[in-house]
Input
Amino acid sequence: MKLCVAQIKPVSGAVQRNIDQHRKLLALAITQGADVVVFPELSLTGYEPNLASQLATGQNDSRFDTFQQLADAHSLTIGIGAPTKSETGICISLIIFQPVKARQTYSKQYLHPDEEAFFVNAQRFSGLIGPEANIALAICYELSVPEHLANACKNGAEIYLASVAKSSEGVKKANEQLMAIARQKSMLVLMTNCIGPCDNFVGAGQSAIWTNTGTLAGQLNDTHEGILLVDTTTQEAMALYL
Output
């Protein structure tokens, strides 16, 4: 199985433009035979909490049909970051497109305190994604919450994939935590981060993958959009830039 994290530079609030950029990165991943491609936190809108209420949508938004078509045509699982509406408020979510299946939404269960003025915590999501149904998703702050990892392991996850929006300092901390998770849980671990302006910080990229021994398999730079792929059998990684 080939897993891919996509590093994107979203333009704040420019959803259609960002959809087009997602398509470019997906096309690159498809040329490499990717089975799963996941984008950073709120990749469709940019990480802009102040804009979330006006940009919030749902998994069946017709603008997202293009992602379902790609999933169906290429036997591909795709995770796209977006603010979504729920009965209790706005959630930070990953909308999941799987080949010839109904769309799913994974929403952030553990918010950073700074996010609580804009978003609500979601209900627990126990599902795992991917063709082997063994990938647990985490959205940014969740990777720092021990209960989140414990639930993932309890549900049978063998791979941990974090979709984040982090500054350079945030990336340093996340790297330490994710490397420790890979080593301690013997899991393949992936992180996808954005680049460019976000809210009150700058996304620092450096999307990365660690083997199940905690060794860094590959990492993107902090300036360019691109993809990082890993073969789950060999655990060897490859980077490609737009």
